[in-house]
Amino acid sequence: MYQSNKISFFEGFKKSLPLVFSASFFGIIFGYTGANGQLPLSIISSSSFIIFAGAAQFISIILIIAKEEMLAIIVAALLINLRHLLYGAVIHDLTKFKGIKKLIAAYFLTDEAFLVTTLTEKQNQQSDLKFNLDYILLGSGITLWVFWNITTILGYLLYNVTSNLFFIPDNFVISASFIGYLVNHYIKYKQDRLIIILTSIMALILGFTLNTSSILIIIMFSGAIFAILFQKGGN
């Protein structure tokens, strides 16, 4: 027995609530990063209307602050978002929306919405009460969109309130954002904690020493090198 569209939408909303705290935290950092880079709120908020993909928005804003070429910004955002091709392939077989409704659902297809939708699909297989996955996706995606946009504005306003109280290097906010992701992984993956700690320390140091967007590349490659070395050591 399928639940109504309204019930399914609300179920998507409820299942997304545990993920809202993490998304809101990064929304605040995102708004703070943009304000710290002297970008207007219109640019920062519009990225959520156009892109609405946290990681791609972060890299885009960081490259804009660093005054990189537009082509580099577009390519970087596209590369970061390539995983959505895989998400789309999976969701295409699970949902029944057509035409404009499918395009709207695709817009709200974030990492979190994908997770909620696929987990609900597994739940549907094991229960007689089934939810409409189209509206699960919409309920989840719209919930995260609302909280992300609100917290982005809060982060921007927070910078305006605190910027005169203490000095924060431009790239330190970038490092703080990266460390925020690492903290989340630290909690989940106990076996990788030493790698995460070393990468976090490097991100913290580089945040006070580098003055270009190369900090991101160095941190990511360093994390990969640490992982390879410790994996070999473990074997």
What are the main properties of this structure?
235 residues, mainly alpha, 2 domains, 11 helices, globular
Question: What's this entry about, in short?
Answer:
With 235 residues, the chain is mainly alpha-helical. It has helices at 5-36, 41-50, 54-65, 70-80, 83-94, 99-107, 111-126, 133-162, 170-188, 193-209, 214-234.
How would you sum up this structure, described in words?
The protein has eleven helices and no strands. The protein has 235 residues and is mainly α. It has two domains: 5-162, no CATH class; 170-234, no CATH class. The mean pLDDT is 79.
What is the C-alpha radius of gyration, as a whole number of Å? 19 Å
Number of helices: 11
Mean of pLDDT:
79
Q: How many strand units?
A: 0
Distance between the termini: 50 Å
Strand-residue proportion: under 5%
Order of helices and strands: HHHHHHHHHHH
Question: Low-confidence parts, pLDDT < 50 over ≥5 residues?
Answer: none
Secondary structure category: mainly alpha
Number of domains: 2
Helical residues, percent: over 70%
Shape: globular
Largest sheet: none
